[in-house]
Amino acid sequence: MEAKIHSFESLGAVDGPGVRFVIFMQGCTLKCKYCQNRDTWDMNAGMSYTVQDLLQKVLRYENYIKTNGGVTVSGGEPLIQVKFLIDFFKELKKHNIHTCIDTSGNVALTDDVKSLIDLTDLFLLDIKSINDEKSIDLVGVSNEKELNFARYLSDIGKPLWIRQVLIPSLTDSEEDLLEIKDFISTLNNVEKVEILPYHDLGKFKWEKLGLEYPLEGVRTANNEDVERAKQILGI
C-alpha cells in the first residue's frame, strides 16, 4: 500500500507536544478560502511512499522525537488516506513513537476511522467555523461532521487540542467565540485551545496555480485580535 505525501518537516515545534516529525499528506475534500497549502488539494499530486519507506524516513530522527515529541500527520486532510495511516501507525507503535493527527475531523466515523483513532495518541482539531452557515461559505461544507468527530473523541476520552483560525470579520465575532467556548465546555478531553492568527503567506501558492486568492483584501490577524479572542474564550 502507498500513500500520497505532499511534504515533510523534520523537526517541527508547533504541531503537537515536543519536537515532531511532521508529515503533510496530499489531498483534501474541503475548499477552505484561507488555505495556506492550496497545492495539497489534488489527490493525484504529491510523492508516493510505502509504509516502510515512510517509517525509515521517520526513524532517522528517532533520537530527536522519541523523548517528548513524536510524529504528527497533517495535510491536506490525512483522514482521506485512513487505511494507509492505520498500517503506518501500527508500525510507529512498535517503536513506541507518539502519534498525532492534525485534522478537520470532517469525515464519517467509519470502522476504519475509529481504528485509526484508537492508534492515535492526540488529535489537533481545526474547527473551521462554529457557525454552520459560515462554515459552508468558508470551507464548502457543513461543520456537522467535525463537531460530531469532537464529541466522539470526548466520549472515548481521546486527548484533544482545539484549534481556531482567527480571521478578522469571518471567525472572530464575539458571538461565534462564545459559541466555541460553550461547545468546548461540553467536551471532557480538551487539553489545550489554540488561536491561530490568520495570515496570507500561502497566497502565492494560489497565484502559482493561476487561481484567484479568495480572501484578497481581508486583513491579517494581529496580537490584539488574538488577545481579545483569548479573553473571550477564557484561555
Using brief descriptors, characterize the structure shown:
235 residues; alpha/beta; TIM Barrel; 8-stranded mixed sheet; 9 helices; 8 strands; 36% helix
Summed up, the helix count is 9
How many domains make up the coordinates? 1
Helical fraction: 25-40%
CATH class membership: Alpha Beta
Task: Quote the average pLDDT.
Answer: 96
Termini separation comes to 42 Å
Fourth-level CATH superfamily: Aldolase class I
Q: Class by helix and strand content?
A: alpha/beta
Q: What is the annotated CATH architecture?
A: Alpha-Beta Barrel
The counted number of beta strands is 8
Main sheet attributes: strand count, strand direction, barrel closure: 8 strands, mixed
Q: What is the H-and-E element order?
A: EEEHHEHEHEHHEHEHH
The name of the CATH topology is TIM Barrel
Residue share in β-strands: 15-25%
Fold and architecture overview:
It is a single chain. The chain is α/β, with parallel strands linked by helices. The chain has one domain: TIM Barrel (Alpha-Beta Barrel), CATH 3.20.20. It is built from 9 helices and 8 strands. An 8-stranded mixed β-sheet has the order 3-1-2-4-5-6-7-8. A hairpin with a 7-residue loop joins strand 1 and strand 2. The model has no long low-confidence stretch (mean pLDDT 96).
Short description:
Helix 1 packs across helix 3 and helix 3 runs parallel beside helix 4. With about 240 residues, the protein is an alpha/beta fold.
SSE arrangement:
Layout (H helix, E strand, L loop, with lengths): L1 E11 L7 E6 L21 E4 H9 L2 H4 L4 E5 L7 H13 L4 E5 L7 H9 L2 E5 L5 H8 L4 H13 L3 E7 L7 H12 L4 E8 L5 H6 L14 H11 L2
